[in-house]
């Protein structure tokens, strides 16, 4: 318990809030690395997931690939990339992208798949082009689940981005590695608490976004469903 | 005019949905495709707007083979009404009706104004315009579906069991509405149902389909009743069960119509 007090005391110490390696600077770096990773992983995973969800093809392959990726230990991948590419941010970013792809892919295809096929069929029969169906029907209706995938990926990235400090002088992980080396457990714990707090705040933000993106017409149904029917089982996105 | 010429559909797994179908559908008439499930009636309907492509034969609209027309352009010119309305749940009623006109480049304002007129046409209050489909009753949703089908003022209206999911009272209301609309608008309507009474009520021409996607008989309701082509048709329309073989008897000086089972069906108008 005493250690926790010391950890919080370390966070609150004004000396840690200015100068090189200060908490705001590390926090900024941590967020920047996480955002970069999330963006790259989204560019790769979301279109592929959307394609799988829209066509209903390639689902098995996607499940296999993301299962494989999930099984990779990030620290091992990071070491491998580090040995290959060298010191710097490139290796951690690559390792984190691999970590982030499975939840994003699952969120995207689960979101697109969740749209009632009869609605899609009607849209097509009316004369909507495939891209119009994707953008105007499947995306807005599947968005809550897709954002759920982004949410789960972002929390994993933020937690694991501490490893960036293993190969670069970047991010909140620096406090953990530094504290471990100098046996400064207050710094180590302080760094960990900051990472946890950041992850929780970002998770909360995405939870809010997830709620906001539910289309109004669907929200109207859902409130009624809640009263009359048991909740539908939702696709897992983690 | 819509014409099916020797149309067949066989799926890659060998299932035959439709076999050797010839139908001529005259403009401004209602043709009802009727049969039990698995008789290929919906498949036939969906060949008209290329939601299904035949594996043999041709489907022609006014002499043009639909296979030569871009499917999206073809569909935008044909109204389509399906069971469970198929409305977009995240768009309001008026936006649902305006969807296709907006896609074809009509301004949003104009499309919405036209959509409001269409709500009048199908007998819906304009106050429903800004509601979402989930806030409407099943019957109201189907009316919106019909309004959407009419939005581009198509010559052809395809209706795939549009009244199959509503209760009998609403269904009969919607049927009467369709008859009224058809009297005003004179579209070429192709209607799919498994309900023979609905077929007799709505159809100028009835096409009775049997398992394996073959036509048993295509004729006017009166001709089908007068001369069923085979035992299947006779059974399907209920002639065998006596439901439609009516005869007259005198009761208290009035002429009562009685069906084959001896149950009174009505009184002969003087």
TrEMBL record, chain A:
Which topology term describes how it sits in the membrane? Answer: Multi-pass membrane protein
Q: Does the keyword Nucleus apply?
A: no
Q: Which residues form the ABC transmembrane type-1 domain?
A: 27-206
**InterPro entries reported for this sequence:** ABC_transp_perm/SBD (IPR051204), MetI-like (IPR000515), MetI-like_sf (IPR035906)
PROSITE patterns given in the database record: ABC_TM1
Q: Which positions, given as ranges, span the membrane?
A: 31-52, 64-87, 93-112, 133-151, 189-209
Keywords in UniProt for this one?
Membrane, Transmembrane, Transmembrane helix, Transport
Q: Where in the cell is it found?
A: Cell membrane; Membrane
> What Gene3D superfamilies would the database entry show?
MetI-like
Q: Which Pfam families match?
A: BPD_transp_1 (PF00528)
Which protein family is it in? Belongs to the binding-protein-dependent transport system permease family.
The name on file for this protein is: ABC transporter permease
Species in which this protein is naturally found: Agromyces salentinus
TrEMBL record, chain B:
Alphabetical UniProt keywords: ATP-binding, Nucleotide-binding, Transport
Organism lineage string? Bacteria, Bacillati, Actinomycetota, Actinomycetes, Micrococcales
Q: What is this protein called?
A: ATP-binding cassette domain-containing protein
- A molecular function GO annotation: ATP binding
Record-linked PROSITE patterns: ABC_TRANSPORTER_1, ABC_TRANSPORTER_2
Record carries keyword Nucleotide-binding: yes
Read off the InterPro entries from this record.
Answer: AAA+_ATPase, ABC_transporter-like_ATP-bd, ABC_transporter-like_CS, P-loop_NTPase
TM ranges are none
List the PANTHER family hit by this protein, alphabetically.
Answer: OSMOPROTECTANT IMPORT ATP-BINDING PROTEIN OSMV
- Give the residues annotated as coiled coil: none
Ranges where the ABC transporter domain occurs: 2-237
Q: Which Pfam families match?
A: ABC_tran
Is Nucleotidyltransferase there in the keyword field? no
Q: Which family does it belong to?
A: Belongs to the ABC transporter superfamily.
């Amino acid at each position: 318990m005493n250690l926790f007090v010391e950890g919080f005391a370390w966070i609150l110490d004004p000396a840690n809030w200015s100068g090189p390696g200060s908490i705001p600077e590390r926090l900024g770096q941590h967020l920047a690395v996480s955002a970069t990773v999330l963006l790259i992983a989204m560019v790769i995973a979301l279109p592929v997931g959307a394609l799988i969800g829209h066509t209903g093809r390639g689902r098995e392959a996607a499940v296999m690939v993301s299962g494989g990726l999930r099984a990779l230990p990030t620290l091992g991948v990071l070491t491998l990339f580090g040995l290959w590419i060298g010191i710097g941010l490139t290796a951690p970013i690559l390792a984190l992208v691999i970590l982030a792809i499975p939840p994003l892919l699952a969120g995207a295809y689960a979101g697109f798949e969740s749209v009632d096929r009869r609605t899609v069929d009607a849209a097509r029969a009316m004369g909507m082009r495939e891209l119009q169906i994707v953008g105007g029907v499947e995306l807005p209706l599947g968005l809550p689940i897709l954002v759920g995938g982004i949410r789960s990926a972002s929390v994993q990235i933020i937690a694991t981005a501490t490893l960036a400090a293993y190969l670069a002088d970047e991010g909140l992980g620096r406090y953990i590695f530094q504290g471990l080396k100098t046996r400064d457990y207050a710094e180590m714990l302080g760094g960990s608490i900051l990472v946890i707090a950041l992850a929780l705040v970002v998770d909360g933000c995405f939870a809010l976004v997830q709620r906001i993106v539910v289309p109004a017409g669907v929200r109207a149904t859902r409130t009624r469903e809640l009263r009359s029917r048991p909740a539908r089982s939702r696709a897992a996105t983690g | 005019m819509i014409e099916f010429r020797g149309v067949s559909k066989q799926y890659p797994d060998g299932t035959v949905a439709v076999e050797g179908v010839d139908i001529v559908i005259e403009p401004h008439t209602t043709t009802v495709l009727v049969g039990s499930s698995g008789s290929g009636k919906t498949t036939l309907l969906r060949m008209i707007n290329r939601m299904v492509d035949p594996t043999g034969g041709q489907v022609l609209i006014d002499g043009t083979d639909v296979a030569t027309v871009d499917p999206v352009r073809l569909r935008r010119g044909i109204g389509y009404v399906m069971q469970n309305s198929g409305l977009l749940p995240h768009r309001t009623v008026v936006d649902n009706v305006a969807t296709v006109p907006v896609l074809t480049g009509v301004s949003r304002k104009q499309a919405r104004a036209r959509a409001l007129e269409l709500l009048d046409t199908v007998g819906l209050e304009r106050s429903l315009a800004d509601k979402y489909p989930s806030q409407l009753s099943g019957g109201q949703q189907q009316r919106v579906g019909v309004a959407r089908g009419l939005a581009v003022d198509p010559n052809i209206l395809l209706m795939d069991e549009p009244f199959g999911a509503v209760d009998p009272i609403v269904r009969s209301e919607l049927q009467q509405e369709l008859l009224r609309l058809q009297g005003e608008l004179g579209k070429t309507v192709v209607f799919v149902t498994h309900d023979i009474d609905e077929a007799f009520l709505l159809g100028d021409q009835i096409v009775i389909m049997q398992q394996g996607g073959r036509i048993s008989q295509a004729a006017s309701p009166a001709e089908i009743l007068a001369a069923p082509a085979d035992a299947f048709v006779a059974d399907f329309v209920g002639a065998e069960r006596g439901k439609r073989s009516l005869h007259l008897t005198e009761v208290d000086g009035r002429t009562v119509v009685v069906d084959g089972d001896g149950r009174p069906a009505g009184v002969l108008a003087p």
